[in-house]
Specification:
By secondary structure, the chain is of the alpha+beta class. 44% of the residues lie in helices and 24% in strands. The protein has two domains: 77 residues, no CATH class; 62 residues, Beta Barrel (OB fold (Dihydrolipoamide Acetyltransferase, E2P)). Helix 2 runs antiparallel to helix 3 and helix 3 runs antiparallel to helix 4.
Length: 153
């Protein structure tokens, strides 16, 4: 028993290592927070505090990690960029008109490196080649576009 009281820091480190390894299996971010508490207990043991103080510090550190750190980590891991697939990722992008677009005649635009059939979103518009347009909608293989005002205009 004397060895354990003299080397309590080693026991705390062993507990932290076991909890850290178990976290690799669970991936819940709970056991790693408890492992941090065990590390706090190890530091307290190295400083020569009593076993009761070591347990209190380990418990308080674990509770603090679970209450303050884990929710932020979980939220950060669960958020991410919205995945857009197919044509929906092209809506809102700008393109250059390569052939005249009118309400009566479908033209063409250069969009994301590809040539697309295009019609004006407002069927009363005529858009000349070289104009910059924004894609409002894609139906089938036709992009419905609207001209974008240039900065000098």
């Amino acid at each position: 028993m004397d060895w354990l009281s003299e080397n309590a820091w080693a026991a705390w480190l062993g507990v932290a290592a076991v909890l850290g390894a178990a976290e690799l299996v669970s991936l819940d971010l709970v056991l790693i927070m408890l492992a941090v508490g065990a590390l706090a207990g190890a530091v307290t043991a190295v400083l020569g505090a009593a076993v009761i103080a070591q347990i209190l510090v380990a418990g308080l550190a674990s509770i603090a990690m679970l209450a303050l750190v884990r929710p932020n980590l979980v939220a950060r891991l669960h958020q991410g960029p919205d995945l857009q697939l197919g044509h929906s990722k092209l809506v809102g992008q700008r393109a250059v008109v390569t052939s005249r677009i009118t309400g009566l005649a479908i033209g063409q635009i250069k969009l994301a490196g590809e040539t697309w059939s295009a019609a004006p979103y407002d069927e009363h518009l005529t858009i000349e080649p070289g104009a910059t347009v924004e894609v409002f909608e894609i139906r089938g293989a036709t992009a419905y576009v609207h001209p974008v005002a240039e900065l000098g205009e």
